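User: Okay, second chain of the day. Same drill as before: sequence in, C-alpha cells out.
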Amino acid sequence: MDKTMARLSYGFMALSAVGVALYSLRYLGVPWGVWALIDAGIAGVIAAVPFKALTHMLIAPLALLVGPFQFIPSLRARHPKIHRYLGRVYVACCVIAGIAALAVVPHASGGPIAGWGFGILAVLWVGSALGGWWSAIRRKFELHRLLMRLSYAMTFGAVTLRLQIPIGFMLGYTSYSAMSVWLAYTSWIPNVIAVLAYSAFESRNRRLLRGAPTKDLPRMRTRHGIVGL
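Assistant: Same drill. C-alpha cells below.
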C-alpha cells in the first residue's frame, strides 16, 4: 500500500511538472509578439523588465522538468554520473531563475505584498539549491537530501500555484494579479511544510530501525517502508 501511494504521488508530481514546464513554452513567442494565453498582469511585468522576466519564465521550467529525475533511487544507484550532471543542471537553473525572479519582484503584478512573498521564495529557492550542491560536495548526503527536497518543493510551487488559480476564481477574484497577493505564499509554503513533515517522519523511522534488535528489522522495514524520495 505504501509503495503504491508513493508511486502514485511520484507519478502525479512528474506528470504535472512536465505539463506545467511544457505550458511555459508559450513565453517563447513573446519576443515575436505572440502573447497567447498570457495573463494581462504577467504581460505587464514582461513589458516592464523583458529580459529579466523571460529569463525567469523560461529557465525555471527547466528546473521543474529536471527535478523529478533526481528522486529516482535506481538512477542514483546505477548511473551516479547522470544524477550528478542533472543535479548541476538543476542547481544552475534554480540560481539563474531565482536571481532573475528577485530582479522582477519590484514589478510584481500583485503589488508589494505579492512581491514580498515571491521575493522570500526566490531567496530560499536559490539558497536551498546552492546548499544542496555544497552539502553533496562535502558528502553530507543526509543534509543534501533534505535541502534538495526543500528546493524542489519550492520549484514545484509553479504547479501548486496553477492548481490554486481556479480556487481564486471560485472565491471571486477576477484575475491572476488580484489573487497573487495570497498565491505568493500559498503556492510554496504548504509544499515546504509537507517536505519537512515527511523528512522528520522518515528520520524517526530510520532511528527506530537503527535502534531495533536485528531479529525485528525485517518486520519494521515492512511496517515502516521508507520511500527513497
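Confidence is low (pLDDT under 50) at residues 216-229.

User: Thanks, on to the next one.
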